[in-house]
Please model this.
Amino acid sequence: MSAAREAQREAERAVRAEVRRLNELQARMLRECHAKCIAKPRDGDLAIAEMACLDRCVPKYLETHDLVGKEIDTVRRAFAGPTRQAAEKEREREREHDAAGAAAARLGGGGAR
Model:
């Protein structure tokens, strides 16, 4: 399979996963706001108070979801930072070690490996 085809498939998987996450978000939001705002389900139109409640609930739910997501990203980056920095330092040490070995080999010392 070509690299371009594999990249296209990966992009399609990412889009499907994002659509699935958005559908789940919408379903959770509807469940939560419905439970909070609609006391007695009935046929017909919503009462004015129910509509007003839903008008407040949906944006608050989305705003809260966004804030929680940002906080999770901040925490994730904070934990990933030291790990990433340690990996970068290890790669730098390996490059220095390889460079020292190559220099020693050029000088006829057999290498520092």
Observations:
- The helical segments are 3-37, 48-106.
- The mean pLDDT is 84.
